[in-house]
Amino acid sequence: MAFFDELAARIETADSVVSVGLDPDPDRIPDFLDGDLPRWGFNRRVIDATHEHAACYKPNAAFYEDPDGWRALEETVAYAHGKGVPVLLDAKRGDIGNTARQYASVLDTVDAITVNPYLGEDSLQPFLSRSDAGVFVLARTSNPGARDFQNLEVGNDKRLYEYVAQRAAEWSDGNVGLVVGATAPEELEAVRELVPDLPFLVPGVGAQGGDAEAAVEHGLADGVGLVNSSRGIIFAGEETSEASAYFDAAGDAARRLKRRLNEYR
Ligand SMILES: O=C(O)c1cc(=O)[nH]c(=O)n1[C@@H]1O[C@H](COP(=O)(O)O)[C@@H](O)[C@H]1O
After folding, report:
1. 229 CB under 6 A from ligand 1?
2. From the CB of 59, is ligand 1 less than 6 Å away?
3. How many helical (H) and strand (E) elements, i.e. helices and strands, does the chain have?
4. pLDDT digits (tens, 9 = 90+) for 200-241
5. 186 burial class (0-12, 13-18, 19+ CB within 10 angstroms)?
6. What SS3 class is residue 43?
7. Whole-angstrom Cα distance, residue 220 to residue 195?
8. How many independent structural domains does the chain possess?
9. Which domain holds residue 217?
10. Active-site residue flag, 92
11. What is the DSSP letter of 87?
C-alpha cells in the first residue's frame, strides 16, 4: 500500500496524528535497562506504552549510527510494524545521485524518510521514484537557524522555504510530504496556503515549545499529516527510577498529546 494511504488508515484506527519520535539518547536511557541493546529495550517499552496513540514512529537516524544502533533500529522497526504502526526514518538525506541511490535502499526497511532538498531534484530522485514510500522534504525547519537560509527571499516575493514547498508539490506522485516546524506558525500557515494538498510532518511541539494548534490547523491535508514529539514523550518518566512508572509516563504523555491535538482536528 502507498505510504500516505497506510498513514491515513493508521490515523483513523488510532484516532491520532501523533508521531512518536524515537530518539533514545544513550545518556538518558535509564540505568535499569542494561541488556544487550539498551536502545532496543528502551524503544520496545516505549512502543508497548504508546502504540495505541501513535500514528507513526519517527526514529532519528542520528541515534542509531553505529553497529549496535542499526541492530536496535531494525528490531524497533519490526516491532512497530508488528503493532501496525508505520515507521518514518528521520535521516534528512541529500547527496549526489549515485550516493542517494544507496541511501534510498533504507526504504526497503522503513516506510518513509525525511530528505534535505539542498542538492536539488536529482539528489532526491531515488527517493521520489519510490511510489510506495513517503518522502518528507525539509521546507521550513523548527530550529532558530532556519532563518539563515530558508527565509531568504528568492524572487517574486517568495522565501526559499516557499519555493522548496512549491517544487516539492510538483515532484509529488502522491508520495511527498513536507517538514515544517511548529515553532514557526506564520511560516506554517504560509506554506499551507501555497501547497494545499501535501501532508506535513510538523516537529517542534513538546520540548521545543512549538504551537500545537497551528500544527494541526495547517499541518493536515484532507486529515492526513503528523505532529511529532520526541523527548516530551519518551523521557516523560525521567523523574522516576521505577520501570513500569517510567514507561507509563511515556504512555500518558502520548495520550495527552493525542487528546490535545484532537481538539483541533
Ligand atoms: O525532520 C525532523 O523531524 C525535524 C525537523 C525540524 O525542523 N525540527 C526537528 O526537531 N526535527 C526532528 O524532530 C525531533 C524533535 O525532537 P523533540 O524536540 O525532542 O520533540 C528530532 O528528531 C529532530 O531532529
Report:
1. yes
2. no
3. 11, 8
4. 999 999 999 999 999 999 999 999 999 999 999 999 999 998
5. exposed
6. helix
7. 11
8. 1
9. 3-262
10. yes
11. B
